[in-house]
Design brief:
Elements: H1 22-52, H2 56-92, H3 96-130, H4 136-151, H5 154-168, H6 172-195, H7 205-230, H8 245-277, H9 281-317, H10 321-348, H11 350-355, H12 361-374, H13 378-393, H14 397-420, H15 425-429, H16 431-455
Helix pairs in contact: 1-6, 1-9, 2-3, 2-4, 2-5, 2-8, 2-9, 3-4, 3-5, 4-7, 5-6, 5-7, 6-7, 8-9, 8-14, 9-10, 9-12, 9-13, 10-13, 13-14, 13-16, 14-16
Length: 463
């Protein structure tokens, strides 16, 4: 494709994504993001640890709220992924005008998304919980928490967007700082607002949600300031801005599959919760705790992904095959290390992990085998997660959508449902390793096809 307008006032040195040695580039961009993601995982876990002190029903309510919270983040991140892919590819092509337009449209679309969740949260929160349980205490706890998260969702969308802009131009260190500040703010405010310490009102479960929103607001403000101060490749001014349907289509051609994948993830969690609550609400609480704990393993891999996507997109735009292949192999290797840590942790210290959440003997009896069985799927999960981001970075959003759809809905939910007929909750956990193994086979098929069609013909020179 022929380059469009190039701004002659832009600096002439090439972005580091095209010239820095690949391993050093991947580590320099991903380590700050991994740290930020680990802090993010920490605050998710701390949130639930504090909430668990209010009782098992409070923990179950936050677990039932997770699909919507996950969907909010998924829509924000998915739009950000589409914006990033277009922005980084435009920078690789030296098309600075389109890169800037990608950024402005990304911000615009994120704000529209926040508006949708504000309306949905205001009117449908209680119905959402009532569809899952008849327990009035769980419904009330859930409403207190999710109403705040949805109605005040602008900060989370703003934080995601401004951090993605920093990452897409290779400035992931600043994204780490803003994300860390937001997460630490949340961790500090959690006990103060939940239990009414140091003169704060005692807001209970709602306090956990308010602390989350305030943390996101702090992170968003800092990330915006970093963009205005240090991101010289982008000019974030809405003066004369008009939505451009062509740019919106380009963003969503990659971003929409990512959003749909998150939607599928939310439907999957909703469905598994429905299956588990038919056994006991304790099983639902265990599943919620598992999702919080697994974030310590998956968040660093997502950090790696967030660094990998702009590197792949940039070098695909610049037609440098060797740099693309090196980035993929290194990402797979690093992801496998994190997965190994997960397998070892869940197999050797499951009791200790569950006791962090004030686990009752009942919860331990269900939770220990659950963590051990589910962790088997980590053998395959790292490669599947990296594969999905490869598809997105190279503009193959449909491949991501097919794989994610198969993984979350076509395989996992039916397998979990069938295994529930054994009347043994431990059998349900086996749906995770079975699904992940089948998903990996699908990923390998698409990776081979993408290599043949898109990468094989690119320049063999790394620079």
């Amino acid at each position: 494709m022929e380059n469009e307008t190039k701004n002659i006032n832009e600096p002439t040195p090439e972005n580091k994504m095209g010239v820095m040695p690949v391993n050093r580039l991947l580590l320099s961009m991903s380590i700050p993001l991994m740290i930020a993601m680990l802090v993010q995982a920490l605050y998710n876990v701390v949130d639930s640890i504090f909430v668990s002190r209010l009782g098992e029903n409070a923990l179950a309510a936050v677990s039932l709220a997770f699909p919507i919270q996950s969907l909010i983040i998924g829509v924000g991140v998915g739009t950000g992924v589409g914006m990033n892919a277009l922005l980084s590819r435009s920078l690789g092509e030296k098309n600075f005008k389109q890169a800037n337009q990608a950024a402005l449209h990304g911000i615009f679309l994120e704000l529209l998304s926040a508006l949708v969740f504000m309306v949905a949260g205001a009117f449908f929160t209680r119905a959402f919980f009532a569809s899952q349980t008849a327990d009035s205490e769980i419904i009330n706890f859930g409403w207190d928490y999710l109403f705040v998260i949805c109605v005040f969702s602008v900060p989370v969308f703003a934080e995601i967007t401004f951090e993605r802009l920093l990452v897409s131009t290779g400035r992931s260190f600043y994204a780490m700082i803003s994300q860390t500040v937001g997460a630490v703010t949340n961790i500090i405010l959690d006990p103060l607002m939940i239990f009414g310490l140091l003169g704060f009102p005692k807001w209970g479960v709602a306090g956990a949600a308010i602390a989350t929103v305030l943390g996101q607001l702090f992170g968003a403000c800092l990330a915006l300031w970093f963009n205005l101060r240090f991101n010289r490749e982008l000019k974030l001014s809405f003066k004369g801005f008009r939505p451009n349907l062509d740019i919106i289509k380009k963003i969503y051609s990659v971003g929409l599959p990512s959003i749909l994948m998150s939607s599928m993830g939310s439907i999957m969690v909703y469905g598994v919760n429905a299956i588990l609550i038919s056994f006991t609400s304790t099983a639902t609480a265990v599943f919620g705790v598992y999702f919080k704990l697994q974030s310590f393993i998956f968040m660093p891999v997502f950090g790696l992904n967030n660094a990998m996507v702009p590197i792949l997109a940039y070098n695909f735009g610049a037609r440098r095959r060797e740099r693309i292949i090196s980035t993929i192999y290194l990402s797979l290797a690093y992801a496998s290390i994190f997965m190994l840590i997960g397998i070892l942790s869940f197999n050797f210290i499951p009791n200790w992990l569950l006791l962090l959440f004030d686990a009752s003997p009942d919860m331990l009896a269900i939770g220990v085998p659950a963590l051990r069985i589910i962790s088997i799927h980590y053998v395959f999960a790292g490669s599947c997660i990296i594969s999905l981001s490869i598809f997105q970075a190279l503009g193959q959003g449909m491949a991501s959508l097919i794989v994610a759809g198969s993984r979350q809905l076509l395989l996992l939910l039916p397998i979990a449902w069938l295994l529930s007929f054994t009347k043994n909750v431990n059998a349900v956990w086996w749906s995770f390793p079975i699904t992940e193994f089948l998903t990996l086979a699908l990923c390998v098929f698409f990776l081979k096809r993408i290599y043949e069609r898109q990468l094989k013909g690119l320049s063999q020179h790394s620079h």
